[in-house]
Amino acid sequence: MAPKDDVEAKPACHPRACAIQNCLTSNGYNEAKCQTVIKQLYECCESFYERYGEQASTVSCPKPNLLKLKMKQLREEGK
């Protein structure tokens, strides 16, 4: 399932959060090896807030202001 499709999951983006946990477990909790799945969660959460507004909430996503900061950091790292 693509990250944006996971917006419709119950709870929203939960499959992406589970993917992070699985990745961390499989890689000895080395976060550096899980950056792709972490980014996919953030992208799903960004889509969730775009679709439902910043007042929406899901246990799988950070609050909108923190998500904006994380997405900005990821975009700057990608430059």
Automatic annotation (TrEMBL):
PROSITE patterns: CHCH. Gene3D superfamilies: CytochromE C oxidase copper chaperone (1.10.287.1130). The keyword Calcium does not apply. It holds the Pfam family CMC4. Its main location: mitochondrion. It is found in: Mitochondrion intermembrane space. It comes from the Eukaryota. The keyword Transcription does not apply. GO terms for cellular component: mitochondrial intermembrane space. Disulfide bonds join 13-44, 23-34, 45-61. InterPro entries: CMC4 (IPR027179), Cys_alpha_HP_mot_SF (IPR009069). Transmembrane segments: none annotated. Keywords: Disulfide bond, Mitochondrion, Repeat. Belongs to the CMC4 family. This is Cx9C motif-containing protein 4, mitochondrial. The lineage of its organism: Eukaryota, Fungi, Dikarya, Ascomycota, Pezizomycotina.
